[in-house]
Backbone:
């Protein structure tokens, strides 16, 4: 029987991993959830089949090391995340984590050791959907621990400390997740946008990653009777929030490359015949440069405050996440470009509008990303899709990069 190709095995594993969900038939694998734990266990089982010993680190990443020729050689770290958004696609994150494993399997099958060790990482918290704090996994690796984040609670009142403990992490020793001896970090990821498809190119090399600011908002008005309260005497929190959402959209539309999203909005008490007394929503603002993003966030806050004042409602704005933009390391960009060319794919250089663990890893080590074309540019959606051929060429380019990598 013909041997299964690495790309086929990778595509099959992506399908298998997609079955780990807390909300079937949808794929929802929020960080530190029971399905995330089961996916981590499966990932560990696959790394063990390749002869590696894998572990869950204190902040909830899965990590495994493939030694180099010399003991204690510096490590090239490769991987991506295995948490998902709600009703997700199966490639965002999982592709890069499983591709890292596949590259090491290729080396192990040939009993080939490199000058560098390879560290595989499957990050645990890239999406930031369950807890306001996000990128906890990569932040732990670079040593940026914020123990106060452990007190944050999810929508069901479970704290990050409790979730991390149940997952197999160690909330009392977050500092022990800090990685040492890392030479560089590289992440393979789907593009999540339409550029590669439009240009007929399977691969892209990321030049820079947009920075992001996230805030949570509480608007407080007065709940009241929907029939008995005249319109001019109301303090409707949801109507005020709606006006704020449109102000946010207008500010983002006013500037090229700036984007802003209200992805979640809840009204309380939430009954057909009650004026909403409270509205809560999230804001996510992104731009390639940090200064325009910060200016936009300040303008949005001022506009919201003016709306709140005019409508007589209270406004509480809490920043929940701040990630500076990252310019990918020139040595990694050049190395990925050469690897892509070597496997026959002339890559497109492009920025990433989406956030990635790479932007945190890049704060301490040279870092970069390889993008693979995805169908229709669709992501954060169950329709996410890549072709087996593109998967094969991306895997070949990643393997080539790893084989040619030289620590400085
Ligand atoms: C992660 O997918 C993000 O950019 O929000
Ligand atoms: Mn991702
Ligand atoms: Mn994502």
Residues:
């Amino acid at each position: 029987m013909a041997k299964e190709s690495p790309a086929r095995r990778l595509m099959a594993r992506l399908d298998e991993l997609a079955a780990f969900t807390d909300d079937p038939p949808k794929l929802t694998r929020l960080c530190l959830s029971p399905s995330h734990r089961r996916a981590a266990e499966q990932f560990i089982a696959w790394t063990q089949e390749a002869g590696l010993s894998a572990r869950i680190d204190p902040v909830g990443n899965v990590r495994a090391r493939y030694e180099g020729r010399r003991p204690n050689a510096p490590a090239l770290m490769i991987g991506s995340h295995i948490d998902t958004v709600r009703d997700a696609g199966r490639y965002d994150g999982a592709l890069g984590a499983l591709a890292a494993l596949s590259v090491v399997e290729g080396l192990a099958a040939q009993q080939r050791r490199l000058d560098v060790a390879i560290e595989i990482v499957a990050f645990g918290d890239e999406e930031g959907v369950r807890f306001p704090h996000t990128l906890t996994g990569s932040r732990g690796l670079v040593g940026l621990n914020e123990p106060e984040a452990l007190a944050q609670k999810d929508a069901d009142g479970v704290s990050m400390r409790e979730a991390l403990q149940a997952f197999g992490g160690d909330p009392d020793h977050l500092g022990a997740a800090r990685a040492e001896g890392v030479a560089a970090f590289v992440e393979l990821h789907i593009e999540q946008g339409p550029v590669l498809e439009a240009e007929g190119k399977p691969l892209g090399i990321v030049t820079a990653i947009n920075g992001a600011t996230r805030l949570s908002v509480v608007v407080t008005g007065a709940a009241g009777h929907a029939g008995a309260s005249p319109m001019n005497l109301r303090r409707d929190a949801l109507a005020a929030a709606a006006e704020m959402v449109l102000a946010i959209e207008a500010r983002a539309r006013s500037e090229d490359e700036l984007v802003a999203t209200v992805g979640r909005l809840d009204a309380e008490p939430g009954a057909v015949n009650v004026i909403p007394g409270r509205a809560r929503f999230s804001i996510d603002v992104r731009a390639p440069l940090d200064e325009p993003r910060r200016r936009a966030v300040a303008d949005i806050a001022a506009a919201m405050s003016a709306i709140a004042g005019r409508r007589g409602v209270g406004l509480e704005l809490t920043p929940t996440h701040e990630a500076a933009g990252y310019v990918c390391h020139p040595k990694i960009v050049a190395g990925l470009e050469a690897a892509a060319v070597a496997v026959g794919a002339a890559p497109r250089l492009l920025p990433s509008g989406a956030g990635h663990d790479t932007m945190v890893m890049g704060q301490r080590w040279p870092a970069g990303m390889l993008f693979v074309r995805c169908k229709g540019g669709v992501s954060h959606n169950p329709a996410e899709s890549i072709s087996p051929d593109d998967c094969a060429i991306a895997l070949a380019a990643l393997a080539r990069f790893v084989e040619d990598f030289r620590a400085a």
Observations:
- The mean pLDDT is 97.
- Residues 81, 92-93, 126, 189, 356 surround manganese (II) ion (ligand 2) (CB under 6 Å).
- The CA atoms of residues 225 and 274 lie 5 Å apart.
